Structure to design on (130 residues):
């Protein structure tokens, strides 16, 4: 059943260790047969086939409470056979704010604030909201 099926990417390819991130597998050849199943590492979840090029699976909770990467494997025939997607999914822990300085600023805003945190990933576009 998986003959000719392939996964080009996962959207998103990362999520929190608590799981429940809706992950779309984008690819080709997702024939309309039985319920798809996604394996995130060794953790199995049922998927939903949107069409022949999209499957949605909710990520299961990570087995570890730290940055952790797993391979995603898919079955298109309710778990009878699986095919390797060559795609990986990265779990990351919740960010914890340890401290910030200064703790007060002017009401108009514009005060530069330094934040110390644990669990920060090295990615572009990190922002703070107050």
């Amino acid at each position: 059943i998986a003959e000719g099926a392939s996964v080009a990417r996962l959207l998103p390819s990362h999520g929190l260790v608590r799981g429940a991130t809706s992950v779309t597998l984008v690819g080709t050849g997702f024939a309309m047969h039985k319920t798809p199943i996604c394996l995130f590492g060794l953790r199995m979840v049922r998927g939903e086939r949107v069409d022949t090029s999209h499957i949605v699976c909710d990520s299961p909770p990570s087995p570890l409470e730290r940055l952790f990467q797993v391979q995603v494997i898919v079955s298109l025939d309710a778990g009878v056979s699986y095919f390797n997607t060559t795609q990986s999914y990265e779990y990351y822990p919740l960010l914890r704010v340890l401290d910030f300085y200064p703790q007060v600023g002017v009401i108009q805003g514009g005060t530069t604030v330094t934040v110390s945190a644990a669990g920060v990933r090295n990615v572009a576009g990190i922002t703070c909201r107050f």
Notes: Residues 95 and 119 are 5 Å apart (CA to CA). The chain has a mean pLDDT of 88. The radius of gyration is 19 Å.
